[in-house]
Amino acid sequence: MRTPRKINPLAALQPAFVVAAGLFMNVAWSDENETRTAFFFDSSRERMPLVTEFPRYPYVARRDRIEGQATVCFTINRRGAVVRPGIRSSSHRIFRRPALKAIRRSTFEPLQEGETKSTLKTCRTYRFKLDPIVADSN
């Protein structure tokens, strides 16, 4: 024989609370269309970037107001493509995937005929910073 299941009287209120919390978070931290700011620094200036892709700020990090950085090291081949990217360091693991995606989508100047530079290993640091939230006094 089964024992009767206990019903939590607050269970009916949980969906309303989740919706209310979601509405508050949208007001406080805005939506996906906000301007994302990502700063980056290269360790080498020998090859100029053609396409620089900026990482998306992770939603959870933005929601929880987490700032930080991730350093990606990679090799630039003769055609200017990024090969073998890897995370050297990161302040929080949540920034690793967006940094890797961004560097894979970036490209550099290809070598011209007769240029003898071999593949170049370099690093790029992406800094994830949030704009401060300004409280409305009204």
Describe the protein's architecture and organization.
There is one protein chain. The protein is an alpha+beta fold and 138 residues long. Helix content is 22%, strand content 27%. The chain has three helices and six strands; from the N terminus they run αββαββαββ. The longest helix has 16 residues, at 14-29. Mean pLDDT is 75; it is low at 6-38. The strands form two sheets. Strands 1-6-3-4 form a four-stranded antiparallel beta sheet, with helices on one face. It has a two-stranded antiparallel sheet with strand order 2-5. The chain starts with 13 loop residues before the first helix and ends in a 10-residue tail after the last strand. A hairpin with a 5-residue loop joins β3 (68-76) and β4.
What keyword list fits this structure?
single chain; 138 residues; alpha+beta; TolA/TonB C-terminal domain; four-stranded antiparallel beta sheet; two-stranded antiparallel ribbon; 3 helices; 22% helix; elongated
